[in-house]
Write the structure tokens for this entry.
Amino acid sequence: MRTLKPSRGLLLGLVAVVIAAACGAPGASNPSPEASVHGGSVSVLGVWSDGELDSFNAVLAPFTAQTGITVSFETSRDQDAILTTRVTAGNPPDLAAAPSPSLLTRFAQQGKVINLENIMNMTQLKSDYDKGWIDLGTVNGHLVQIFSWADLKGLVWYNPKVFAAKGYTVPKTWADMITLQNKIKADGTTPWCMAVENGAASGWAGSDFHKEIVLSTVGPNVYDSWWQGKTKWSSPAIKSTWTTFGQILGSGDSNVYGGANYVINTTFGDVGTPMFQNPPKCTMLNQASFITSFFTKANPSLKPGVDFNFFPLPDVNPQYAGAHVGAASAWSMFKDTPQARALLRYLATPEAQAIWVTRGGKLSPNKRVPLSAYPDDQTRAIGALLTSAKIFKYDAGDLMPSDMKNAYWSAILDFIRDQSKLDSILQSLDKVQATAYQAT
Amino acid sequence: MDLLIQDVPTLVLVIVGVPAVLAAYIVGGEYIVRLLPDKARPSVRPWIWVGPALIIVAAFLVAPAIGTVIQSFENHAGNWVGLTNYQRQLADFPTGGAWIAIRNNVYWLVLYTLFVLFFGLLLAVLFDRVRYEQIVKSLIFLPMAISSVALGVIWKFMFWYQPGDAPQTGTLNYIVVNWLHQSPKTWLTDPSINNFSLIAAAVWGITGFSMVILSAALKGIPGELLEAARVDGAGEITIFRRVIFPLMMPTVVVVGTTLVIFALKAFDIVYVMTAGNFGTDVLANRMYKLLFQSDNPGGSSAVAIILLVAVIPVLIFNLRQFRAVEARR
């Protein structure tokens, strides 16, 4: 089956697993006896709720129907705390879908997660995923994480109707964007909408904007050494990314609707509301691909491509053109059960991933998920952007130790509140950096 | 539903089993005491009765406390690092380490305790003089029935911020904008007021508790005393200052020290409303963040011990007061 063409290979592969699982027959294509599992249950810990949980359940439905394995899904936004407690107490879930790899990497270093090389079909996996994804899931030479769905960050959303009416054009370069920003201001509108409040995780939405700037300013190498804690926050390279971010905010936050107070007091999901008001209160906003579901939830009449569209945030340094930051759901196994193996294998298949992709709101890192699976042209374009990105880097904040990540988010809040405090903010980040990486 | 059915045997075990074991222990213990010579019985019997409590306290309080102390001197790998964890928490006064949290705990300690006592006492004394006392007291006691998390969420809506040109959906900003004609305030993110916003929400939630206890103490003051004072020509304010307040003092102190401990333990409201951002961190929230978000058990234990050391004097004082109140009865 390895030599088959991808489209047929995936079909046969899944059929083989499913038949093997459903009939309890010794799987000819899959030598491990676990494939013959039927019934039982698998426990999963994740962060999805509401619409996202519905989509995940839709993904699980064919799996449960075919294998008889029930999935008991436990959801919590405070997953770090719950997973840490349960792993430490020796009572982990079978599988966990953490939104960030850093937490799972920590468990991997402590030897608390199962190595996946012998569980997954590695040849298939390596042909399905870019090497970057495999490397990201590899800790100390062992594959401990696989990725199912992804979000692409660094997308600037705007209302095409407003752009057409005012004669704005989509900027291709950073300089273009600053020009556009000034033009919008000169026309008497606010260029940007921004909203970063999210309870204990407040600030991340702003950090997404900032880290996109980091990647396209300093390039992938410094970006890596930055999240790895080897480049100081106060170093000239990183400091310049903050001043660039300050350029977006404008002096005294004059470029963002409602000023700093609105930005830090408004929930990230409501960011689009002022942009779709009549007359619009702002012209553009930066957010990952998932934000469209918030647009349409708040305002069901909005149509993708007609009422809102996106352009990739221009790269600050043209040398790093085509650089993108993204994030994905990382799966790890804590208890090696036949049922958990079956589910993990299923989640890595393009069929499983396509179910959510078609429902909207997620992209797939699996190259065999066809672009035709995406629900509309806009998401298709984002999906193409993900697979064609010249430089793709995982969300730096999620890769940092949680201590560093939380300090980063708080720093974003402090910076938005008062840009003049940049030096003291970076100093305190340096201090956290000095200790945060020792714990893990 | 499956879970419920699975849990039925456990439920039966708890409902039937726990009382059965307790009864067996009491009967068995008493049987053993009876076997002893008469003289030995009084010295053995108390230990039989306090025994289970002592074991439970030792297992679930003393042992973890000792474990926390030990952990506070260790690094992540479990190696002895001396006072490093404490040094980190107490470094860089006044803004580094745990200092912001310590400062905020002092705010909480002073303002929360005083305001709750003040309002509790005021309401208790004033409502004592009206006919609809029970209804009003019930209403003020009502927030006690709300969990702190729900209270935080409710007050978050009260403090909601919208920019000046948008309709204000937060109650307080509605008043500020439409009645006082000021620009809306960012109650939870402005470091000059946010701690007080949090404390105000907490005070609202607990005032009923203080009022009910103080009111009970007030009712315990014999009417003859007040009458005697009136006959002697004392005004109502003088009576409150010279007769009522001194007699209520032991209760005020007990409620006050309890509130001090509540203030030091403040966590849920901060966690829900600001998550410790914008300079509103408190020690309990810091402890939580260090342990669960930063995976830093040593630092977290150090914060826990700092908190414990701060609580101990209050605890001792509180116990003494309890005893003093008992002695007076």
Notes: The longest helix of chain A spans residues 204-227.
